[in-house]
Each structure stands twice: as structure tokens, then as C-alpha cells.
Amino acid sequence: MKVLIWDLETGGVNAFRANLGFVLNFGYKWLGEKATKVLTVDQFPGWFSTDSSIDDRLLVAAALRIMERADLLVAHYGDKFDRRFFQGRCVIHGLTPPPPTKQRDTWAIARRAFNFSSNRLGALADTLGLPEQKHHKTRDEWPGWWFRAMSGDTRAIHAMARYCRQDVLTLEQVYLRIRAYDLPHPRLTGDGTVCGVCGGAVQFRGFSCVGVYRYRRFQCIKCGKWGRLQKREAVEQ
């Protein structure tokens, strides 16, 4: 399965609402590949008009084509923000909706599984001691980048793209560290004899009981994720 790690950088009068803002950067990385890429709005013709407004239609259309190739999406706070903002821009521009691809939200995983003081991406990376850390913005960068980008300053847009790229790298490492705790994570491989998330060898350890049935339970030796066989057995009365 192709897993897409992705992140948006937005701007506008209100960068948190799709009808009041626009997409400036679309950062993404395919899990297992080295390249981390960022589409910037200024790559596309007609992105900045004479009335000082930004048109992100071509950027959103290009990002949509990338998302259509994914079998699974990974984002941080993506269920509440990135996905809804992106879909809002799609419908505003009259584009077809993205496919209903399942998404794993690292913010939601951390919120369910742990009781950390903060589930923000930077806080998680720091708490977990990951080598890829989120860039901490200075006052000049926030809100400076956003104001300058709105006026058509490509240097600000490209600075935000570097920030977006780092977010994607950090997100990938957070996801890899905590995905073993994501109980409903879909299988990424059809081989039922290995871990469905990382492909590692498994060791059978006990049973999971559901009603009058039980299922053989196993744990991945590599990442530690628990799972169970689909074949059920009746519990002896």
C-alpha cells in the first residue's frame, strides 16, 4: 500500500477557514521513500493577480492528483483541519472530491493512547526524543511569513515551504514511533503471517475474547504492535 505523509501551509484573511484562506504549500512524502517534496503556490501560472489576491486552484488540483494515488493518508491534526480545509478549497474551485482514503491522524492517536501534556507535533517530537524536530518559529516568521506571502512575496512562500518540509519529516517519525499504539490501524500487507503495519515477524501470545469466541493474539517482534488472527474459535463452556 502507498502511504502518503502530508501537510498544508495556509494563508489568508483567516488561514483556518477554507472560504477565507488559501493553500500556500502542500508538503508530502511517500512512506519508505527518501524524497520529501513541497508544492508551492507560486509554481503555477496566474497564482497572483493584480488585485493582490492569491489563486491556489492549480496547486490544489496538482495536490489532488497526488492524493488520488494514496492508499492511506497520514497527517497531524489532519482530520480536524488539513483534510477539511483541502476539501473546502476543492469544492470552491469546482474540483472533484478527493477519494475517501482512510487517514491516520497522529494527534488523534496520541490523544487516545497517551496522557501527554501536549499532543502538538513539536511537543510529541520533543517528548519522544526524535532526531527530526519541528522548527520553532520566531516573531519575524509568525506572523511575518503569512503577511508577506499574502502580498505576493515568494521568499516568504519558499521559507514556509522549508518549514512545511520539516513538518513532514517530523510527522513521519512521530507516526513511525506511535503507530504500534494505533489499535484500528489498517493492515498494509495482505500477508496474514506478518505484522500488518511494519511487516515484521510475529509471536503468538494468548487470545482475544469477543463474546463466545476467541481469536489467537500475536505481537510483532519488530515494532511491538498487537494483532489477532481473523479465524475465530468457540470458547469451551
Describe the structure.
- This protein has six helices and eight strands.
- Strand 6 and strand 7 form a beta hairpin.
- Helix 4 packs across helix 6 and helix 5 crosses helix 6.
- The longest helix is centred in the C-terminal third of the chain and has 25 residues.
- The relative contact order is 0.13.
- The mean pLDDT is 92.
Chart the SSEs and their pairings.
Blueprint (H helix, E strand, L loop, with lengths): L2 E10 L8 E10 L5 E5 L16 H11 L4 E4 L2 H15 L10 E3 H8 L7 H7 L16 H7 L3 H25 L23 E9 L2 E8 L5 E9 L3
Parallel strand pairs: 1-4, 4-5
Antiparallel strand pairs: 1-2, 2-3, 6-7, 7-8
Helix pairs in contact: 4-6, 5-6
- Number of DSSP helical runs: 6
Shape category = elongated
Mean pLDDT: 92
Task: State the helicity in percent bands.
Answer: 25-40%
What does the main sheet amount to?
Answer: 5 strands, mixed
Order of helices and strands: EEEHEHEHHHHEEE
Provide keyphrases for this structure:
31% helix; 237 residues; alpha/beta; five-stranded mixed beta sheet
Condensed summary:
By secondary structure, the chain is of the alpha/beta class.
